[in-house]
Write a structure and sequence with these properties.
The protein is an alpha+beta fold. Helices cover about 50% and strands about 20% of the residues. Strand 1 and strand 2 form a beta hairpin. The longest helix is centred in the last third of the chain and has 16 residues.
Length: about 150
């Protein structure tokens, strides 16, 4: 199965998810690890679409998500950069474009290593809090801890 760019954009508009997790990590300079990811989940009967996306982007993994569901996921930073470049050249058409732009801004901040210092991490948390997939209560706790520490 060969995928066309326009099809990938439309499919991502319908099924894609851009998210950024922020987790405590004592070995990190700012005390937290930033984990951006892109995912598309499908029923196992459509696994060929997930593998076609993996070939299209030349990166990512296909793995079990839940009982009869599989996901195509990209977490490697260099692959996320390729993904961001693709969707900047071929914009999404739905409201998902708003979250993508926020996701892309976070990737660019991480590219400049800003996630490794407190001020950059605060900027990232504030962006994440405005994204559709954010756990606002959890992100608020992280933000409070970061800003209380001076």
């Amino acid at each position: 199965m060969e995928l066309e760019r326009e099809w990938v954009v439309g499919f991502t508009d319908g099924k894609g998810c851009f998210s950024v997790g922020i987790y405590p990590h004592p070995e990190m300079t700012a005390g937290y690890q930033v984990l951006p990811e892109f995912r598309i989940v499908q029923h196992q009967r459509d696994v060929q679409v997930l593998y076609a996306l993996k070939r299209f982007f030349k990166c990512g993994v296909v793995r079990k998500n839940n009982e009869d569901r599989l996901e195509f996921r990209i977490r490697k930073f260099n692959c996320l950069m390729k993904l961001v470049n693709f969707f900047e050249r071929h914009p999404l058409k739905t409201k998902k474009q708003v979250d993508f732009k926020k996701f892309a801004r976070i990737i660019r901040l991480m590219e400049r290593k800003e996630h490794l210092n407190k001020n950059g991490l605060v900027r990232i948390v504030k962006i994440v809090m405005t994204m559709n997939t954010s756990d606002h209560e959890r992100q608020s706790r992280i933000l409070r801890k970061l800003t209380e520490c001076g």
